[in-house]
Design goal:
Helices cover about 25% and strands about 55% of the residues. By secondary structure, the chain is of the alpha+beta class. The protein has a seven-stranded mixed sheet. α2 packs antiparallel against α3. The longest helix is centred in the N-terminal third of the chain and has 18 residues. The two termini are about 20 Å apart.
């Protein structure tokens, strides 16, 4: 199910929970709240950016230090697909970020993969794919 600027909701409580968790993650990234993100990220999580890929510890440190500051993610559309204890959230966004001291804006399709651990959803993978056109 999708949501966009009009705030339409998901079809199930689980889908809505995941979409809200994704939105909260973007806010924590904008706020550089590395502690909350560290709780959300699975210990074996992987992150794929335009500049490379790495694990949880490096991602948390990059956010904490401000090496990458995800200032604002404008989510144009999001969808969620739940498969057993795995969820895939796709976000079509325009991201305003500071990278290496330079402010940049790029369109991305962001893939978030969550896994259910006990009763909590943990982010297992976050991948940014730069879009050529919007």
């Amino acid at each position: 199910m999708y949501y966009g600027a009009d705030g339409a909701t998901a079809t199930s409580d689980v889908e809505q929970q995941l979409l809200e968790l994704s939105k909260q993650k973007w806010q924590w990234m904008a706020d550089k709240d590395a502690d909350k993100l560290a709780e959300l990220f699975h210990d074996q999580a992987m992150f794929v950016h335009m500049g490379g890929s790495w694990g949880k510890d490096r991602e948390v440190e990059i956010i904490r230090s401000g090496d990458i500051h995800y200032k604002q993610a404008d989510v144009h559309e999001a969808s969620v697909q739940v498969i057993d204890n795995t969820a895939i959230v796709l976000n079509n966004i325009t991201l305003l970020a500071v990278v290496g001291g330079n402010e940049v804006t790029n369109p991305f399709e962001v893939t978030e993969v969550y896994t259910k651990v006990d009763d909590d959803w943990k982010l297992a993978s976050l991948s940014f794919t730069r879009l050529m056109t919007r």
